Predict the structure.
Amino acid sequence: VYLRETIYHRAPTTPGLYNGPYVIADYQSGAAIVLERNPYWAGVKPGFRRIVLKFVGSTAALLANLLAGDVDMVAGEGIGLTIDQVLALRRQSPERFTYLFRPSLTFEQVLFNLANPILADPRVRQALLLALDRSRMVDRLFEGLQPVAATWVNPRDADFTASVPPTPYDPVRARAMLAEAGWTPGPDGVCVNAAGTRLSFELLSTAGNRLRDLEQLVLQTAWRAVCVETTLRGEPASTLFGETLRHRQFSAMALFAWTSAPGEVPRSRFATQMIPDAANHFAGADYGGFSDPVMDADLASAETAFDPAARAALFADMQRRFAALLPALPLFFRSEAHVLPTWLRGFQPTGHIGLGCLWAENWHPG
């Protein structure tokens, strides 16, 4: 109720509301926000008198606006063009814009539902990871601009440990691990166990996302090569995150991304107490049902660890636990793509949830 009734929402151009380098001079809901210099700002004088933020409803329309000159720049950070659109634009018009790609803390993963009896075996999960040539996938789909992940911690994060490198591509070892777990190729090439159960999973993801569709196909092909059958399904993001994951109603695997803040303790994702159920009103985000007492203890300690060395040791141990137990299959860290006019100076993408536009006073024409 407060958010709806506050003057920031009802009358955002009211004088005196803002103490930043810009104030809102005009606001058109669902269309545009006009920012103008704040005459009372005591910091660096903004390089532009006015900045107009436009709302464009689709990436296709956004690209059309950019090419027509109706939009000067498109910042990434989760709100701009997709990386494949920007890569295609760079190939077509390499000199027209400045292109920046900044790896972010957004972690692309395949989450396992550990209530699935087949996926409860860590050997099966490890085999699924070994079967993936993630470097080739990143090269083919994203021109190598999205770094392969070892865990959920980005190498740019202060809590990263180099002691847990990405698992290498090794389909031979993947087949051996599946055999060790009791899965051998059947007559049609799909593995079966002694009871005749097929090694078959459903891979769920967001519908209507072209890049996710391509990722799903890559995963399906790679797993088929080591005798794992995968069926693909998509759901609208509102359904996937609002109902399916929240109520743990996916049968095997879900492909989606986590976005975190620098130094964030991932208690909501990995703590036993955060497995969503009726008792906690489905408020947790440990959708896969991961439970490990060592991880629980590390998470609790990390939340109150202020000594840098102690914190680093806890995060290193959590990353080792993640790599050993694989509650999720790490793919890559998403790179945010920014398209800027060649005359713009001072724009610095952050690579995290603090948007680069928060430092707009540093922008200036060059």
